[in-house]
Amino acid sequence: MTSKEDVLDSLVDINENFGAMATGEIEVALTSLYKMIESMQPAKEVIPQDKSDMVKRTIRDLDGIYHVYLSFDGHTEASISKSDFVMLVRAIVNGYEVEKEKKYVLPIPTGEMKSIDREHFASFLDGLGWSASGITMLRKDAMKRSELRFTQAQIDEAPAWVQALDKVEVEEDD
User: Which InterPro entries match (predicted)?
Assistant: First the structure.
């Protein structure tokens, strides 16, 4: 691991030899120095979405660092778990980002043979609700359509026929 002293030594070395260094050598030295500094910076903690409120609340009010108060009725208190505490401290020290919620498409099985990899997908349209009417397209195209991509929470709240479908995780979420 790179130390502060290593970085300072490199800076002194670059400064002392600057006049004798060719342009390419200076670029290499500065790039190396940049990488050293970057390696010293810890990566931001990636936290699950369900923990983001706890982290925000605790950062805002550091009194909660040993206990997280769950206000169901104003009287309930739960001790923070060791793994949550470690995650919390890392997030406070290094900063954090909330992990993206996974999204899924829901292919509808049909008895028909698929023609050219086209599939039917469950959809949800505001005002109309869930539909199995069979929007037919390539899976990669379905993954780009917002009315065909759903979070686990949305699937959990859907009718039983939707929950029974085999979900496919969206590979890239724009």
Answer: DUF1642
* The dihedral formed by the CA atoms of 86, 92, 94 and 98, expressed in degrees to the nearest 10: 80
Q: Measured between alpha carbons, how far is 80 from 69 in angstroms, rounded to an integer?
A: 9
Which residues make Cβ contacts (< 8 Å) with residue 116, sequence separation at least 6? 138
Catalogue the long-range contacts made by 147-150 (C-beta closer than 8 Å, 24 or more residues apart). Answer: 147/123, 148/105, 148/106, 148/121, 148/122, 148/123, 149/103, 149/104, 149/105, 149/173, 150/103, 150/104, 150/105, 150/106, 150/124
| Residue pLDDT, tens place only, 121-174 | 888 877 778 887 667 888 888 888 888 899 999 999 999 998 999 999 998 755
Alpha carbons 130 and 66: distance in angstroms, whole number: 44
Domain regions of the chain by residue span: 4-40, 45-98, 103-169
In 3D, which of 17, 91, 15 has the Cα closest to residue 58?
91
Q: Is 117 left (phi over 0), alpha (psi -120 to 50) or beta?
A: left
pLDDT tens across 27-42, in order? Answer: 788 788 778 777 777 7
